[in-house]
Write the structure tokens for this entry.
Amino acid sequence: MRTGGMGLDDQALKDMARRCRVNIVKMTHAANSGHPGGSLSSIDLLCGLYGTQMRVDPDNPDWPDRDRFIMSKGHASPAVYSILHEIGYISEEDMMSFREFGSVCQGHVDMKWTDGVDFSAGSLGMGLSFGLGCALAARMDGSSRNVWVMLGDGEIQEGEVWEAFMAADFHSIGNLKVIVDRNRIQNDDFVHLQMEVGDVSAKLASFGWTVKEIDGHSMNELTDALKWASSHNSGPAAIVANTVKGKGVSFMEDNPSFHGKAPDDDELKQALEELS
């Protein structure tokens, strides 16, 4: 069992995030499919979360009192698989079979296929409601486990998300933690061109949540915020992380084209050179 994450310092977390970025571009290139942009924007946050806070046990993936992580924007599966590889849930061979028929690394995260995955994704907008149920179940079990949910900023255009925000405050769910990956790009284009979500932090606060807004690529800032959220138990807590879609690969950064487009051979070569 790992209590309070892996105890990694900022430099170790940055090194982990670089390795994960390499694997994200390799995975999507090998599959000629997938979603690199949102995986790259969120990977610093996932490294910080698993490296400092998550209580999990790769040797006992069904441990009842483990913390839960819900990747609601489940198409960012390469980010999840890369961090699960880092902490020992899946092998490199598993990871590089991404999107192959019968692989444990399906296109969307699926708890039926992959150890370490606690939510089967598909349509957007469902993860927070699922996480709320997990958090309520923990309360009923008398368990101290925390439930972390990652949402995309395009995803929070969904109405069900706001019903869950409202219900979490009403039930004073202190073990429910949300991270919003605010990269400002969704499937078709920039969020503000599709349907602007406005001041996300202010909206969450108006729904009764305690909120911190951070730079989602500053390891020091995000680990401090994760520690704060983990210890905030008087009600639901949210971190709004300002990120860059495609972070770490120059031609993918802030580029809507790489929401769901894999790098070709030349692009992979350039990406790996930049990430080296």
